[in-house]
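User: We ran a pulldown and think these components assemble together. Before we commit to crystallization trials, I'd like a predicted model of the whole complex to look at. Sequences follow.
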Amino acid sequence: MTLIDRTRAVIDKRQVLWTLVVRDLRVRYSRSILGYVWTVLDPLLMSSIYFVVFVFIFKSGKVGQQPYFLFLVIGLLSWQWFSGSLTDTSRALLADAKLIRSTNLPREIWVVRVVIAKGVEYVLSLPVLAAFTLFYALQGKVHFNLGLLLFPVGLVMEFVLLIGLGLLLAPITALVTDMARVIKIVLRMLFYLTPVLYAGNRIPAPYDKAVWLNPMTGVLEMLRAGFFDQPVVRGPVILGAVVTVALLFVGAFTFSRLERSVLKEI
Amino acid sequence: MSAVISVDDLGIEFFRSRRRRMSMREMLFHRKRTHSTETFWALRNISFTVKEGEAVGLVGGNGGGKSTLLKMIAGVLLPDEGAVSVAQGVAPLIELTGGFVGELSARDNVYLQAGLHGMGKDEIDERFESIVDFAGPQVRAALDTPFRHFSSGMQVRLGFSVITALDEPIILVDEVLAVGDKAFREKCYKRMESLLEGGRTLFLVSHSEAELLRFSTRGLYLRSGELAMDGAMADVLAQYNADAAETGK
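Assistant: Here's a predicted model for the assembly, 515 residues in total across the polymer chains.
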C-alpha cells in the first residue's frame, strides 16, 4: 500500500521535518517582533468586525450560538489555519523548488511541513481562545459539556484534511500556472459556504445537508461542541470524516502520479 | 567490491518546449492544451554499475544528459523507464546554496542545511567548528549576520563546506568540484582528494579535463542521451575530444 509506505518514509525523516518546521517559524518570527501578534491579531480583528456588523448593524447576533463573539473566534482561528495552510501548501513545491532540486527527501514532506508549521501557529493562538473562554465563563455564559472531548478530534480531522488537500493541490499548482488564483477565489467562496460566521442549523433545508459535504463543517461542529448548549449534529461530523479520508487517498494518489512531471518542471 | 550505484536501462523523457506549464484560463477558453506535446528522450537505454570506491567522471557535450543522469542518481529526478538503485547515502554537490535561507544567520543555515541532508544535531555540533574553519575566516567573522549579506563567493564556500562535511560514502559533483577564489579552489581539491583516499565513491560531472583526469579513473561518455563509451578516463576523454574535433570542423 503506497499510502502507508509514503507515510513511513515521511516519518523516517521526522527530524528533517522538524528542522523545516522550525525554520518556517523562525523565518516568520525573525522578520518582526510582532510575528506572534500578527497571527493572533488577524482573526481577532476579523472577529470584532463580524461581531460589529452582525450584532450592531444587522441586529442578528442570533445567526450563531451564544456568546457569539466566542463562536466567531473559534471559527475564525481554525479557518485561518485552513486557508493559510491551503494557500501555502498549494505553492509548496514551487516556493522550495531549489531545495527540492538539491535534496532527496520524500517530496510529501514539503506539503506536510507547511500544514504542521501552520498548525503550530494555530496551537500557539489557543491561549487567546482560552482567555476569551475564561472571560465569558466568568460571566456564566459558556455551557461547558463533554463535547470538549471532541475538540482534539476536530483538530486531527482538520490536520488530515489539510494534508489531503495539500497533496492534491501542490502538484497541480506546480503544473498549472494560474491555479493559485483559482484557489484564492475558491477559498473566499468556501469561507461563506462554511459555517464560520453562522451556525450550520441556520441554513434552510435541504441545503443544510449539502454543507455537510464540506469537511470543515464537521471540524467546526466538533471544535465548538464543548462550549455551547447545542447538541452536536452528527451528520456533518460523520460525512466530513468520510470525505476527509477520501480526500487523503485522492491527494496521495494524485501526488504520486504527478511527482515525476513536477520534478521535471521545477 | 559490491556495486553501490546500479543504473538499469534508464530513460527519461522531456517536453520539447522547455516549460510545459499549463494555464487554467487557456484550457477553459481555448479548449486546448497550452503546451506542445512533443517530447524527446534526454536519456535512454543507459545501464552501468559503479563499485564502491570507484571514481567515475562523466563527459559529454551540452544537452548530453550529464546533469540529468546525476540528478536521477541523487534521487531528485525520477526516471520514466528503468531504475536507479543507490545502496548508500549520497552527498550531492548540486545547487550548493539552494537550501540556504537569506533571512537566517549563517550559523542557523549550517544547522538547517546539514539537517536537511540527514545530519543529527549532535553531529553538527561536533563538526560545526571544522565546517566554519574550512569556509574561511571571512565566513567565521560573519557567522551571525543574515546569509543574504554574504558575497556569492562566501555563500558557495559555506555550501561546499557543509556538503563535504556530510559523512556519506557517495559524493556526486555537478561542476562544483571547486568554488571560490584560487586559494579556496586548491583547498577544495585537497578536501576532495582526502575524501577519495578515505574510500568514498565519486561521481563527477565536469567540463574540465584537468579535474577529470585528476580525480577520476573511469570515464563515462554520454552522447545525445546514449552511453557512447565506458572505459578508462584518459581513453574516454580522447574519444570525446576526437568527436568534438569532428563536429567542430
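The interface with chain A takes residues 12, 14-15, 19-25, 27, 71, 74-78, 80, 90, 92, 94-96, 98-99, 101, 103-104, 108, 111-112, 115-118, 120 of chain B (CB under 8 Å). That may be worth checking against your pulldown data before setting up trials.

User: Thanks, that helps.
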